[in-house]
Amino acid sequence: MMFHHDMCKDMQNRMILEQKIVECIKNNGFEMYYQPQYDFYQNQFRGFEALIRWYDAELGWISPAIFIPIAEESGDIIEIGEWVLREVCNTWAKWKKMFGQDGVISINVSAAQLTKTNFVELIDRVIVEYKINPSEIELEITESVFINDTDSIISTLNSLKNIGVSLSLDDFGTGYSSLTYLKDLPMDTLKIDKSFINDITENNRQAEITDALIELVHKLNMETIAEGVETKEQYDFLRYMKCDNIQGFYTGKPMDEQTAAQLLEQKCYA
Ligand code: C2E
Ligand code: MG
Ligand code: MG
Ligand code: MG
After folding, report:
1. Would the CB of 246 count as within 6 Å of ligand 1?
2. How far is CA 163 from CA 86, 121, 124, 150, 216, in A?
3. Atom of ligand 1 nearest to the CA of 51
């Protein structure tokens, strides 16, 4: 009985959120935050990952980990994704004029966006529209994208590479993390998930695996980013293992646009 009750509640909540997502799109209510990434081997700013944020007057902050999957299922992710792309490129171009920063802006892309036929065109158009150097754009993709129709996804990824944008494989270490993905996909960067590096300082086998993974990625001419680094111990360890880049609360939390601009202005990034 309880089970049915909870299931109903779940579905109800889902429907409420789905409706609120549609309203939020209409009201232009989403906001982008930016989390710095550091090239900690060279001790310099690498760029930002753009992360969507949603504050609802009734519900408060709603995590993208909750609403993005709902938007993916309802199809609203297409519109949200295009808004994210334009908003982030507009901001990055604006910063470039103001601060002349070097670096990359990383944008999360859902499977549903990537499999839409005109995604490559959209990226092409946005790059021209906002006058961004394509090499400064990095698209973050998770392996869930490759479950269906691998061939056509690979061809889309190759078209994106031809435009000149970079590709990174997000959340490596959470799903299948198959070595096949590393072999077959034209990725530039591999993001090692937080869950993967959480216990590297305590678990020797995990540390060895991470060390070997970083070496393997380097042999494939890709670079690594460690995600979700929270402690000095993890930071030191990853540096020692020659991980290329770091992103996490230890070096900087996601921040609103104004705060991110201050960081660029003051060049206080190492
Ligand atoms: P992700 O792409 O793997 O993003 C990294 C997540 O880890 C972010 O959560 C970030 O705030 C969090 N994080 C970073 N450093 C730390 C740390 O040191 N400790 C902890 N505990 N967390 C850390 P966030 O912003 O809640 O986003 C969750 C997920 O939602 C993202 O995971 C991504 O899959 C999705 N997402 C966020 N923004 C977008 C977007 O614009 N478009 C799409 N399609 N998905 C998005
Ligand atoms: Mg990401
Ligand atoms: Mg991730
Ligand atoms: Mg994720």
Report:
1. no
2. 17, 10, 7, 20, 27
3. 38
Q: Residue 35 falls within a domain, yes or no?
A: no
pTM: 0.95
With 0-12 / 13-18 / 19 or more C-beta atoms within 10 angstroms meaning exposed / middle / buried, residue 154 is middle
Rounded mean pLDDT, 192-218: 94
| pLDDT recorded at residue 43 | 83
Q: Measuring from atom 32 of ligand 1, which residue has the nearest CA?
A: 65
The stretch 113-133 carries a mean pLDDT of 95
Question: Residue 131 in contact with residue 93, Cβ under 8 Å?
Answer: yes
Do residue 126 and residue 222 come from a single domain? yes
Tell me, using a 6 A CB cutoff, whether residue 93 lines ligand 1. Answer: no
| Ligand 1 nearest atom to the CA of residue 84, by list position | 41
Ion ligand 3 contact residues with beta carbon within 5 A:
170-171, 227
Q: Domain containing 2: what range?
A: 1-22+52-73
Does 166 share its domain with 222? yes
pLDDT tens sequence across 224-259: 999 999 999 999 999 999 999 999 999 999 999 999
Checking ipTM against 0.95, whether it exceeds it is: yes
